[in-house]
Amino acid sequence: MLTLTTTAAEAVKTIVSQVPLTVDGGVRIRDTGPERGFELSVAETPEPDDTIVETDGARVFLDTSAAAALDDRVLDAELSGDGSVRFALATRA
Known about the structure:
Helices cover 19% and strands 41% of the residues.
């Protein structure tokens, strides 16, 4: 299952906190195919077939295809001074 670094968890919580949601939402990752990669969006709730990954209060929802593709991966993030976030995937050691 996808794991999150502490930095990625903080980035996810920061992104979600900036969007007005009625419930505790999360970031949803959807596999858009080999040419396009993954799509990241903020979601109030997971879709019925999503896998939910929780780390340090951060919630990530993975569609079925993304959950399979990211099963052995680690999500990390780089936070810049201007508030932007860059996510990266690494293979779990």
